[in-house]
Specification:
single chain, about 55% helix, about 0% strand, rod-shaped
């Protein structure tokens, strides 16, 4: 026999019939199903292991990013607090208040007309209306 030839090369085929395979039922190979489930379990185990391995790393990255964001926000708030304290100090400056009063035509009152109203002290054990429960000072 030559290479590439088959046993049917010299055979005579008479009356070729078509074969109807519509009634053939293919059986499910149980080994194929077991192999498929085994591969699926292996892939899930590897994916789960990778997820458990990578989870702390991603959590640490997220925590680091959150910490940086909070640090930037804290710095902005500290700067804003500093500016507000400076503005408050400048607004409370008595020399500035006196200059504004003089510009508006206000004058100091006559000392004889000044009435000092003192805050009344609450009796011992009394509660203030604010609900803070402070006793008399």
């Amino acid at each position: 026999m030559r290479a590439g030839s088959s046993a049917l090369d010299g055979a005579l085929i008479v009356g070729a019939r078509t074969i109807d395979n519509s009634q053939v039922v293919r059986e499910v190979d149980p080994r194929h199903s077991r192999d498929l489930w085994a591969v699926l379990a292996l892939v899930l185990a590897l994916a789960g292991g990778l997820a458990f391995y990578a989870w702390p790393h991603f959590a640490a990255q997220r925590a680091s990013a959150d910490a940086q964001t909070l640090q930037r926000e804290r710095e902005l708030l500290v700067e804003e607090n500093r500016k507000l304290r400076l503005e408050k100090a400048s607004l409370e400056d008595l020399h500035r208040v006196e200059k504004l009063a003089a510009r508006l035509g206000l004058v100091a009152p006559d000392p004889a007309r000044v009435v000092v109203v003192e805050r009344a002290l609450a009796p011992a054990g009394a509660r203030l209306a604010s609900g803070l429960g402070e006793a008399a000072r």
